[in-house]
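Per-residue structure
===
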Amino acid sequence: MQKGLQGTNHSVTLLDLYKEAFNPVLTFNEDKRRRDLVYEEETEKYRKLVKEADSFIFIYPIWWWGMPAILKGFIDRVFVAGFAYRYEGVMPKGLLTGKTAWVINTLDSPLWYVALLYRSADWVIMKKGILQFCGIRQIKRSAFQSVKTSKAAKREKWLLEIQEKAKNL
């Protein structure tokens, strides 16, 4: 990905939640209420990055038909009401309009299996339940299936494919 973006006109900020030691735990108590998350100092720098970004590239594996807990916690704590969306009456209004997203996933199961048995729940949640809910409309996905049984040459081909797509962003 980084090789593909080199030499383009894009300014890239790489955010590795593990290296950041991001705390994904969403805690509520008498002093910490959900509606106050938009003011949380611990996540302020991430909200600033999200606000300044024109595009997002999410790269993660599908585990248990969903994203890893650290990414889910990041979304829960950063893409909060009053920042990423708000309600107008009973209807949500996304506030991250004009931004784009590219979701890159790996999974051990074949996509047809996930679609047939689970109605692509992982993708529906990310695309509709998170990104579109927050106002992001231009969304694409690259999903690499059956990783566990793939050969090294196939995985190398996938990496080159991502690199080429990144050059054309």
